[in-house]
Protein: Phospho-2-dehydro-3-deoxyheptonate aldolase
Amino acid sequence: MLAYFHSTTTLNYIRSLLTSGFASLHSPRDWSLSHVRSPALRRGFETIIDGLSDALDFSRTIGADAGASNSYEQGGGRGTLGEVDFYTSHEGLMLAYESALTRELPVPSSVVPPQSANVNASSASSATSGSSPSQIKAHYNTGAHFLWIGDRTRQLTGAHVEYFRGIRNPIGIKVGPTMQPEELVRVLEIVNPEKEMGRVTLITRYGASKHSFLSSGGESSMVIVHPLIDERPSHFMKAFSLSLTLVEIYFHHSPSWLLVFFPEIREIEPSYSPPGGGTSALSMYIIDAHLPAHIRVVQKSGHPVAWICDPMHGNTQTSSSGLKTRHFNNIIAEITASLRIHTECDSRLNGVSLEFTGELNEEGYSVTECLGGSMELAEEELGLRYQSFCDPRLNFEQSLDIAFLMSNHFKKERRGMTQSSVIDALYQEFKKSSNA
Structure:
């Protein structure tokens, strides 16, 4: 009961903060940039703030910012820039807990579920015979607005997929490097057979680390292709194990193709010399090896999904002191890679999932759990204010850094700049700072 009390109290407190204008964008010049050490970064952030302030001033001048003249408490509307839609979400991991919070409730009259959706059959039939649509009932998880299936619990015949199939909440599915394209489509067919719009969100989490692959130096050429999604008719032959990592080398009947697939993500030092010449190293991001295939197979299936990038969980590392951490540069690298790949695949990245906190200690300092950012948090500083009992979180300053970088990306995209120039401007400053 104490947990319920604290959960309810916290939600009510957040709602009261939002009502009071806590999340308002009307005063961007009040944002502090004192944490930014790099002069070039600070100038870039100040340029973004000046642009936002000018746009807000212009909106007020022409009367486009309705409701901003009076405060919400004085009878004025909060307006678009003063309002925030607030929803709760968590991983549906402990099914006993989730089941206890599942209720059969009337489907809102504004929602028309598909014919074979998870609704009460008797209620549905009575509704079609003339009763009110509000009598249609379905099972909802009342512990959150949105739940997701983790990358480790998405087995096709598992209890988690079965539970998620039966609730009417919008749901998410974590998609990692171990997810096969065919498996992804099968999960979608199970949880959303009617291809209902807005039902499923795919949350990708690959990691931004680079890995070296072999490239032949003779007449043979090499391409990195996942053999399970290669549509060319071919016959393959497994080869050898290298170090502690299982490496599968597949030779196509044509000598012009050498297909290499790493089913496990590990740091490796390739030393294999293919027939016909020497070797050369070719590096690529893990996300580049998987996300394009996942996007294309979903597009081909016709399933409507929203795509979200989770740049946190694929980029967890352990510091020399044994603390679990993440590096800001890897987080940004995965976000920018996702944006680029979605554009190349004629898709759209719909959101970013971040773990961050505005928590301060008694002296008013932010937590120190993730490396890097404009404050250039070093590994030896992690222990200063490391407070997480689970995963490391971005602090207030680092989350603001990401907001500025994303803003900079979309501003340049609107101006028609090329992808390479869109993602590099401020990000390169972070890389310079971290390498200094």
Notes: Residues 89 and 237 are 45 Å apart (CA to CA). Residues 310-436 form a domain with the TIM Barrel fold (CATH 3.20.20.70).
